[in-house]
Specification:
Elements (H helix, E strand, L loop, with lengths): L1 E12 L8 E17 L2 E14 L5 E16 L4 E15 L14 E9 L2
Length: 119
């Protein structure tokens, strides 16, 4: 089974002591391939590409990063599930530089745990 996701995340930040708000946005594309190891348990490899922009309208590029890592999916019951993901930044670059990781806009490693419940 294969998955493909697109994402857009606008962010507004307003600090009490600062008169203006900080605005940025992130575009994301993810691709994964999943295999069933046993009933109710799937393992996956995932690749995710992020691009960060100044402003919520994708105004000016601020940086980009490419993450890879495994994902595990557990079906806990008929209505509950748990997904755990860990990925590392394999490549990245802040805008205007030639470094090989973007540690200004993105983390070196990302971990996610998602509990879902259908009702």
């Amino acid at each position: 089974m294969a998955t493909h996701n697109f994402g857009y995340q606008p962010d507004w930040t307003r600090l009490a002591a600062v008169p203006t708000a900080e605005r940025d946005s992130t575009l994301a594309v993810a691709f994964g391939v999943m295999a069933q190891v046993r009933p109710d348990f799937l393992l996956s490899g995932e690749a995710r590409y992020f691009r960060k922009y100044e402003g919520i309208g994708l105004d000016e590029p601020a940086g980009e990063a490419f993450f890879v890592g495994p994902t595990a999916y557990f079906q806990l019951s008929e209505r509950a599930r748990l997904t755990a993901t860990w990925s590392i930044q394999a490549w990245g670059r802040p805008a205007g530089t030639s470094v090989t990781l973007d540690l200004v806009n993105f983390e070196r490693q990302q971990a996610r745990v998602i509990f879902g419940f259908n009702f």
